[in-house]
Amino acid sequence: MRDHFESVTRQIAAGLKGGERFLANYRAEDSTFIRFNTSAVRQGGHVHEIDLALTLIDGRRQAEEMISLTGRAGEDSGRIARALDELRTAVAASPEDPYLLINETPRNSERRMGGVMPEPAEIVDAVLEAGRGRDLVGFFASGPVWTGFANAAGQTNWDEAHSFNADWSFYAGGDKAVKTAHAGFDWDRAAFAATAETAAARVAALARPPMTVPPGEYRAYLTPAALNEILGMLSWGGFGLAAHRTRATIFLRMVEGGARLNERVTLREATALGAAPAFQREGFLKPDAVTLIERGVYRDCLVSPRSASEYGAPTNGASRGEVPASLDMAAGELPEADVLKALGTGVYVSNLWYLNFSDRSSGRLTGMTRFATFWVENGEIVAPLSVMRFDDTIYRMLGSELEALTAERALWLDPGTYEGRILDSVRLPGALLAGLRFTL
Predict the structure, then answer these.
(1) Distance between CA atoms of 386 and 395, rounded to whole angstroms?
(2) 315-358 pLDDT per residue, tens
(3) Long-range contacts of 203-209 (CB under 8 A, 24+ apart)
(4) Close Cβ partners of 194 (under 8 Å, ≥ 6 residues apart)
(5) Which residues are paired to 160 by β-bridges?
(6) Is the pLDDT of residue 238 over 80?
(7) Whose CA is closest to 169, among 160, 161, 177?
(8) Which tens digit of pLDDT belongs to each residue from 21-80?
(9) Where are the domains of the chain?
(10) Which superfamily does 2-201 belong to?
């Protein structure tokens, strides 16, 4: 794939005219997908695809075209030549871009993430063993994803990420299930089996008659999966410079009013630890880490080249959307094995969904519990809970009410496959709250 990428970029460079420049963003994957239902293989498949986002620049005018490539030199050569001709026409008709900013100082890089990937037969055998006697439904994806960047200045960047992602549920009937994920960069069958057994232990508790508790404030434990949903909302326009300058960020009270989160909360964009590429579409390299929140205090924003140009700030290689791609939350000191004991009596929240802002400027979120949410008394699971709605602020959930974070952390790779496997990741602990407000 590296040879093909270099061949493509050489052809683009040779096809330039006059003062034209180009940005080439190359992405390819070779993925195995296996879907399961009722603990049986229902679909197996393989995807090999190559996409090229080609940007042609003349002065401050630019245009971009997406091209699907085949890996066959003759056919790809014709597609690239046609794209350059079409882009010249588009550039000539385009207005100048006042915020155009591309990397003018070439910096080459190469990185490889991941190692041991399972063979399809190994995946099937491991999943069927985990699902024996249970109703398992979900999918498994694995394989390499290659990402490349090149420009007219001779810069070349290359990332190769080998990862796997198992995303499944043990279905218990009705609206009850135990949702589980197991992802990483090196396959370990024993670790996968341990994850499955932990999830299976919750299935028996789902068979008990469900309880309903009245609206109110309860002690609560948020698993890493539930906390991931909250961090996903915070990432939606929360950490970007543009959102801060336009006062649209959910952290507005922290930025302008001096509010803080709990000192246990440290969040970083940890590119060096994630699967997402260490460079972005305009050719700027990302630092190994950007500290967003440190011990409860807001520190740095994610700054895309466009925001850097518009607001006069240095870019730190953020994406166009200024959204974290490798978010890392510092661990705490609570052993995961002691979570139920530390919770005492309250709500064990396995998953959340349908989250939204109920008051963005005040940092308020709302959402619903999902799948295996339990009522716990004296450190023991009593019964599954009916669906509940929470409505609370980040200044309580990650601030005044945060009692502890778990010492163990979970790695979550985005299971999305829209236009290709997504490489975004989150590494985070679970969170014990002294109080979480439920309104329904």
Answers:
(1) 26
(2) 999 999 999 999 999 999 999 999 999 999 999 999 999 999 99
(3) 203/134, 203/170, 203/172, 203/178, 205/372, 205/374, 205/381, 205/383, 205/384, 206/172, 206/173, 206/176, 206/177, 206/178, 206/372, 206/384, 207/172, 208/382, 208/383, 208/384, 209/383
(4) none
(5) 112, 146
(6) yes
(7) 177
(8) 999 999 999 999 999 999 999 999 999 999 999 999 999 999 999 999 999 888 999 999
(9) 2-201, 216-438
(10) PmbA/TldD superfamily (3.30.2290.10)
The sign one gets for the Cα dihedral 373, 379, 383, 385 is negative
Token code pair at residue 70: 């085949």
Question: If you search the block for the tokens 């050719």, which residue do you land on?
Answer: 283
Give the C-alpha separation, 307 to 384, whole Å.
47
Residue with the two structure tokens 């890392």 = 328
Cα end-to-end span (Å), the chain: 53
Beta strand 156-173 with 297-298 is unpaired
Q: How many CB atoms lie within 10 A of CB 214?
A: 7
Judged on CB neighbours under 10 Å (0-12, 13-18, 19+), 279 is buried
Contact 371, 177 (CB under 8 A): yes
d(CA 52, CA 57): 16
* CA distance readout (Å), 281 to 27, 277, 278, 317: 11, 10, 11, 9
Complete edge-to-edge strand list for the sheet that includes strand 290-294: 297-298, 290-294, 267-269, 326-329, 425-428, 410-413
Count of CB atoms situated within 10 Å of the CB of 57: 22
pTM: 0.93
